[in-house]
Design goal:
alpha/beta, elongated, 2 domains, 6-stranded parallel beta sheet, Rossmann fold, about 15% strand, 7-stranded parallel beta sheet
Length: about 450
């Protein structure tokens, strides 16, 4: 359905059209009309479903309907508060607010930790109508009396489940205690745990329940492929793939901060512009790396799982698992960075003998087998024995050295050709006459 049928004002429809969007996503179809009615909502939606526009567009319209230009010398008052779990997500949500509200006379800003608080204080003193914030830094401002939330009309909790997972429940309750009781509340969460339901019951008023398909059951737009390769040749194979297929925007996941740094340095030596993003980078460094990646100044962004949380990159074509995650569920979060909002994407995993058990865990979770292909010149050495992988909790991830490679050669896969492959990579590829390569991981004592 077109955005024009959702009751949005002409200024917002023009902005949406300028951004190249025509049809609304399921969460937008459900949320926008209800929010415009002034009702509370409890929405189950993961990142990549279009939920940011789903609450930003109607929020802007509601605020604009009652907006009057402030008199000279009169500070604008905060009328909408959007809470997010991470700095990166706060910056991206506020960027969306600015983009969609560019034809309106509303001001916004975002505040988060890890950067100097004084510029934030200066912006707040000048006044804004829309404030995007992380809970911790917002409490800092409240304690210093540099922010006034007494005029908030609309509260948005974005990715509420992650905020609770990160230990923000007390911070959220403190914030709820200082904003007006009469307000509209919008809660978005990927999951509805008992703790989320308890939180929702404490402040939502007769909410409309909105649910859209979870991304880990709707990956139809993401093609997946495993490239078996020796651990010492992963970087070489990655460089080969990037150059051969002219891959221009690739988010590459490593397990560790050191691994992200090392890979970035190696790719730079290979002539591929790369930036690293992880917890040891300062917030300005992380923001610059992300901005450079988005605008194409660097082709590759090497990231750890923690640093990549909250990253929302429109139409990201490629995700590469340079190293498989220790936790199978993190694989879903990683590949979910591509294939968003109707765009296709490819998820590539470079898997060495050490990671066969991790791959098996992922496929067990997916309930399907991910396609394998061997790249000519990068055939794995069958004699290499697996080594233990540190898992951050128990020291190492146990690997069974009785596992084996059993690949069939398939040399000319194009990562960007995923449009014709099934969701989980286990189905047939259009036009493919040869069977998929295999990378069997069963113990030797099992019968074929």
């Amino acid at each position: 359905m077109s955005f024009a049928n959702l009751g949005l004002m002409p200024e917002l429809l023009k902005t949406v059209a300028d951004e190249g969007y025509t049809d609304a996503t399921p969460v937008q179809l459900q949320a926008i009309p209800i929010i415009l009615q002034g009702r509370d909502i409890m929405a189950g939606a993961q990142t990549g479903t279009g939920k940011t526009a789903g609450f930003t567009l109607p929020l802007l319209q509601l605020l604009n309907a009652k907006h009057t230009r402030p008199l000279p010398g009169v500070r604008r008052k905060i009328r909408a508060l959007i809470l997010t779990p991470t700095r990166e997500l706060a910056a991206q949500v506020e960027e969306s607010v600015r983009t969609y509200g560019k034809n309106l006379q509303l001001r916004s800003t975002c505040i988060f930790g890890g950067v100097n608080i004084n510029p934030q204080i200066h912006t707040l003193q000048r006044g804004v109508e829309i404030l995007v914030a992380t809970p911790g830094r917002l409490l800092d401002h409240l304690q210093q009396r540099t922010v006034d939330l007494s005029t908030v009309e609309i509260l948005v909790l974005d990715e509420a489940d992650r905020m609770l997972d990160m230990g923000f429940i007390r911070d959220i309750r403190k914030i709820l205690a200082v904003i007006p009781q009469r307000r509209q509340n919008l809660l978005f969460s990927a999951t509805f745990s008992e703790e989320i339901k308890e939180l929702a019951d404490s402040f939502l008023h007769d909410p409309a329940l909105i649910e859209v398909a979870r991304r880990n059951t709707a990956c139809e737009l993401v093609s997946q492929i495993v490239y078996p390769v020796d651990r010492e040749r992963k970087r070489e194979l990655l460089t080969h793939l990037i150059k051969k297929h002219d891959m221009q925007q690739v988010l590459v996941f490593t397990r560790t901060k050191h691994g992200a740094n090392r890979l970035a340095e190696q790719l730079e030596r290979d002539g591929i512009s790369t930036a690293a993003i992880h917890g040891n980078k300062s917030q300005p460094q992380r923001m610059k790396a992300l901005a450079d990646f988005k605008r194409g100044a660097v082709r590759i962004l090497a990231a750890t799982d923690i640093a990549a949380r909250g990253l929302d990159i429109d139409q990201l074509p490629h995700v590469v698992n340079y190293e498989l995650p220790n936790v199978a569920e993190d694989y879903i979060h990683r590949i979910g960075r591509t294939g968003r909002a109707g765009s296709t994407g490819s998820a590539i995993s470079l898997v060495c003998v050490d990671e066969l058990k991790l791959l098996s865990d992922i496929e067990r979770m997916l309930k399907t087998r991910v396609d394998r292909e061997i790249i000519t010149g990068f055939e794995p050495d069958m004699s290499i024995r697996p080594e233990p992988i540190p898992n951050g909790r128990n020291g190492v991830r146990e690997q069974r050295d009785t596992r084996e490679y059993r690949p069939r050669m398939s040399a000319h896969h194009t990562p960007s050709s995923g449009n014709h492959r099934g969701a989980m990579g286990g189905g047939q590829r259009g036009g493919a006459s040869r069977p998929p390569a295999r990378f069997a991981t069963r113990p030797n004592n099992e019968r074929g």
